[in-house]
């Protein structure tokens, strides 16, 4: 334990430590040194305390001076960095999908900035307002659907579990031009195509709400002017997934193909929205408004489904009838059926007009077509062109039979005439012998047939009775011949069609 | 360097303090109302964007209002149409601070100095004004609001009427939005619904209508199919008639061809007929035919000896036949 006199601080020079703190080269000798003490009455230890203390203080002061020097340099560095950061804060990048506005003291300085790096005044004094040019896409998913509708869940199940009536404010729907109700969904896309107007007009946090409200308004307006039958045309707006089980339509109906009515409605929706956007000058343009779903309310769904089924059946019946009609006409006259009908119509029209010359001319055309003169060619009848006309089917058989008969008659007559002339000379030479010879030959031929059984009755025989039955073999033979004829006609018709 | 840098920093700090104390910035999206000792007059409104001077606070205060469109869509409410139908209507408006001074004066006292409070109070007032304006629904019947054909619905007219009423109310003593320094950009009806009881009636109507259409569609479909089929058959028959006509003509042509050859047989018709009869006998009689013929079937009476004698005077034939009879 050291004993102090207690007055050493009073005798320190005032300026010596301060100089050390400020970093000046203060000599160690300049450190405070204790004044001579009076003789102690008691000395407990004899060591060099003063020397140790002096060395210790010297080291501490040096460390403090170093620390302060470093801190000072750091502060200077930070300030320089802050100043640099302040000035560099005006350096900003406009991305490829953006356009920018340079703002200085709140005022827009020049035109729009293209993508790239741009320099503006430092933050607080200036800024670059960047506005995305990408297409914005939103959905009108639940606004006009029953309450609790969840777009992420199966719509079919949700529609089945819906309510039997609609509660205003909870169950959304749209009213059609005929005062009926339809739930519907839509989607839309828009662009910010005039960024100056957009930046000046629309509060960013309200942008989506405004866009959605304008589309919802357009839907209310467009549906108010469209009858429900037009909206539900062909049922194509009801997706296959939304149809109740067991009531699936034909393949054709199962595909939700946009009909012209839908395209028209979507076009009208886009126009309505864009009219309002233009009026407000909000700097945006609606690119598309699509109707994703229009469906009858649950309670009426079965009735609508039945109507759709009936419509589908009617369409199928019509298609079947058209197919049958095509087949009938093809099997009647091949691909020449339609031009033939056009010619026949024209022939009858001219006949009604008593235009005999014209009718005869048309009849000649009909005959030429029936004869096959136009086979394999494109024929123009009354400004309509029929491709690859080819006569076939029943009509071809009839005409061919007529032609064949015509040729056969001539041939037979010619052969008979030649035969007659050949035999006339024999007959003239000896009529009786000629007749007998010819008759005998014919009778011999007749009697030699297997099917002829001669019965000779002695002269003076009494009454003769003959029982006659139908010959079944003859009936079968006729049937075979008829079938063969039909088969031949069909083969010939198919060959014609292939040609 | 240290002294120069310190000087610059000091100046910057001073400028910063000076800037915040005596200047303010009006952004291009804002209007400002600058009051001197709490007083605001027409010169207090600053609309041009840029850096502006002012007396240091609290001698002068600046209140800035965003002039961009704000969105408001109150809850739906029920209104009666001209034909006493009940409709639940919801509408939206986009509004903005059009007259900052009026807006400031109307809302400063009620909502304090916070601009967000000014907007909140303004929206409350707008809700009330819009609700009142939506009663314009009573000027239109349901048939006028829902009418088929583009441009036939009077919903647009209703929206115009609502906007007009919000801007210039017809009733005396009722203030329009202009009195609050507000302008309405857009008014749109975003939803029209029917009371729940009415929806049930509508559903019943829809069901009945669909059932009628179902029956009509079915019968029309069948009739159409039948018509198409019968028209095709009729057309086919017409074509066949012309084909038969053509075939007949072709046969006639053959007949005329045969005529020439028949004329050559006119020199001895009996012989020609006899030859034809023999041909008939050879070609057909006895083939696939059960035939019982009287002996005088042929006009030539070839089974009748006497007839042959009479016709051809065939004495020699008699002798031959006499031999075969025996």
Describe this structure in words.
The complex is a heterodimer of chains A (499) and B (326). Chain A has helices at 16-21, 49-88, 155-160, 195-201, 204-224, 228-231, 251-254, 260-280, 298-333, 337-352, 356-370, 393-429, 431-447, 472-498; strands at 91-94, 98-104, 107-113, 116-119, 126-132, 136-140, 174-175, 181-182, 184-192, 284-294, 377-381, 384-389. Chain A is an alpha+beta fold. In chain A, a hairpin with a 2-residue loop joins strand 2 (98-104) and strand 3 (107-113). In chain A, helix 5 (204-224) crosses helix 8 (260-280) and helix 9 (298-333) runs parallel beside helix 12 (393-429). The radius of gyration of chain A is 56 Å and the shape is elongated. By secondary structure, chain B is α+β, with helices and mostly antiparallel strands. Chain B has 4 domains: 3-65, no CATH class; 70-194, Band 7 domain (Tetrahydropterin Synthase, Chain A), CATH 3.30.479; 198-267; 268-320, no CATH class. Chain B is 52% helix and 17% strand. Chain B is built from 9 helices and 9 strands. Chain B has helices at 2-22, 100-111, 115-133, 142-145, 155-167, 196-263, 269-283, 305-312, 315-325; strands spanning 23-26, 30-36, 45-46, 50-53, 60-66, 70-72, 77-80, 86-97, 182-193. In chain B, strands 6, 7, 8 and 9 form a 4-stranded antiparallel beta sheet that branches. A 3-stranded antiparallel beta sheet of chain B has the order 3-2-5, with helices on one face. In chain B, helix 2 crosses helix 3 and helix 3 (115-133) crosses helix 5 (155-167). Chain B starts with a helix and ends with a helix. The mean pLDDT of chain B is 85. The interface between A and B is large, with 131 and 127 residues.
Spell out the key features of this protein.
heterodimer, A: alpha+beta, three-stranded antiparallel β-sheet, 12 strands, 14% strand, elongated, disordered N terminus, B: 326 residues, alpha+beta, Tetrahydropterin Synthase, Chain A, four-stranded antiparallel β-sheet, 9 helices, 9 strands, 52% helix
């Amino acid at each position: 334990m050291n004993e102090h006199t207690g007055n050493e601080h009073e005798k320190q020079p005032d300026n010596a430590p301060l100089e050390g703190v400020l970093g000046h080269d203060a000599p160690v000798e300049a450190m405070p040194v204790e004044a001579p003490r009076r003789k102690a009455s008691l000395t407990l230890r004899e060591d060099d305390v003063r020397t140790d203390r002096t060395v210790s203080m010297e080291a501490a002061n040096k460390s403090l001076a170093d620390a302060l020097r470093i801190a000072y340099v750091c502060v200077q560095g930070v300030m320089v960095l802050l100043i640099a950061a302040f000035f560099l804060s005006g350096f900003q990048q406009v991305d490829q999908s953006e356009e920018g506005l340079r703002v200085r003291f709140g005022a827009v300085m020049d035109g729009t900035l293209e993508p790239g790096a741009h320099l503006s005044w430092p933050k607080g004094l200036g800024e670059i307002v960047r506005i995305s040019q990408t297409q914005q896409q939103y959905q009108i998913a639940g606004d006009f659907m029953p309450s609790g509708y969840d777009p992420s869940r199966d719509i079919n199940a949700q529609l089945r579990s819906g309510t039997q009536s609609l509660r205003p404010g909870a169950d959304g729907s749209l009213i059609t031009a005929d005062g009926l109700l339809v739930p519907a969904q839509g989607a839309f896309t828009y662009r910010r195509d005039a960024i100056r107007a957009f930046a000046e007009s629309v509060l960013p946090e309200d942008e989506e709400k405004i866009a959605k409200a304008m589309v919802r308004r357009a839907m209310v307006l467009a549906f108010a002017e469209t009858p429900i039958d037009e909206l539900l045309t062909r049922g194509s707006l009801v997706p296959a997934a939304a149809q109740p089980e067991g009531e699936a339509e034909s393949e054709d109906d199962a595909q939700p193909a946009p009909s012209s009515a839908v395209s028209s409605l979507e076009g009208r929706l886009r126009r309505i929205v864009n009219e309002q956007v233009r009026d407000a000058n909000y700097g945006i343009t609606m690119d598309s408004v699509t109707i994703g779903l229009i469906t009858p309310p649950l309670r009426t769904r079965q009735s609508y489904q039945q109507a759709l089924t009936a419509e589908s059946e009617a369409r199928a019946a019509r298609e079947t009838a058209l197919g049958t009609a095509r087949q009938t006409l093809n099997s009647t006259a091949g691909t020449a059926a339609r031009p033939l009908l056009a010619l026949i119509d024209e022939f009858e029209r001219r006949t009604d007009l008593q235009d005999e010359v014209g009718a005869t001319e048309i009849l000649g055309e009909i005959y030429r077509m029936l004869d096959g003169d136009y086979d394999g060619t494109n024929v123009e009848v009354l400004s309509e062109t029929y491709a690859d006309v080819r006569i076939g089917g029943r009509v071809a058989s009839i005409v061919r039979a007529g032609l064949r008969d015509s040729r056969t008659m001539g041939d037979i007559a010619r052969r008979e005439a030649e035969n007659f002339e050949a035999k006339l000379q024999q007959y003239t030479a000896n009529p009786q012998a000629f007749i007998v010879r010819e008759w005998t030959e014919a009778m011999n031929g007749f009697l030699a047939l297997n099917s002829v059984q001669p019965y000779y009755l002695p002269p003076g025989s009494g009454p003769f009775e003959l029982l006659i039955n139908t010959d079944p073999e003859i009936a079968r033979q006729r049937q075979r011949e008829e079938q063969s004829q039909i088969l031949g006609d069909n083969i010939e018709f198919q060959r014609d069609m292939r040609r | 360097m240290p002294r120069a840098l310190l000087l610059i920093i000091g100046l910057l700090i001073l400028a910063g303090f000076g800037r915040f104390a005596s200047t303010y910035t009006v952004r291009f999206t804002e209007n400002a109302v600058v009051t001197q000792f709490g007083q605001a007059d027409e010169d207090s409104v600053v609309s041009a964007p840029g850096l502006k001077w002012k007396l240091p606070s609290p001698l002068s205060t600046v209140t800035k209002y965003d002039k961009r469109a704000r969105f408001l869509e109150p809850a739906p409410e029920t209104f009666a149409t001209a034909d006493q139908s009940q409709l639940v209507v919801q509408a939206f408006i986009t509004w903005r601070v059009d007259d900052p001074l009026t807006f400031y004066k109307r809302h400063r006292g009620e909502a304090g100095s916070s601009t967000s409070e000014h907007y909140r109070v303004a929206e409350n007032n707008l809700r009330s004004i819009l609700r009142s304006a939506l009663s314009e629904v009573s000027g239109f019947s349901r048939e006028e609001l829902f009418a088929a054909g583009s441009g036939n619905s009077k919903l647009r007219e209703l929206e115009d009427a609502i906007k007009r009423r919000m801007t210039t109310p017809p009733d005396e003593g009722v203030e329009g939005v202009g009195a609050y320094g507000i302008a309405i950009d857009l008014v749109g009806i975003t939803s029209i619904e029917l009371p729940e009881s009415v929806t049930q009636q509508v559903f019943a109507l829809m069901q009945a209508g669909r059932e009628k259409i179902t029956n009509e569609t079915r019968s029309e479909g069948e009739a159409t199919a039948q018509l198409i089929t019968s028209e095709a058959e009729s057309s086919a028959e017409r074509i066949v008639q012309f084909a038969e006509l053509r075939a007949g003509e072709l046969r006639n042509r053959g007949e005329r061809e045969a005529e020439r050859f028949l004329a050559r047989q006119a020199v001895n018709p009996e012989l020609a007929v006899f030859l034809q009869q023999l041909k008939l006998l050879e070609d057909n009689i006895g083939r696939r035919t059960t035939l019982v013929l009287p002996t005088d079937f042929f006009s030539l009476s070839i089974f009748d000896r006497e007839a042959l004698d009479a016709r051809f005077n065939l004495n020699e034939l008699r002798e031959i036949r006499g031999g075969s009879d025996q």
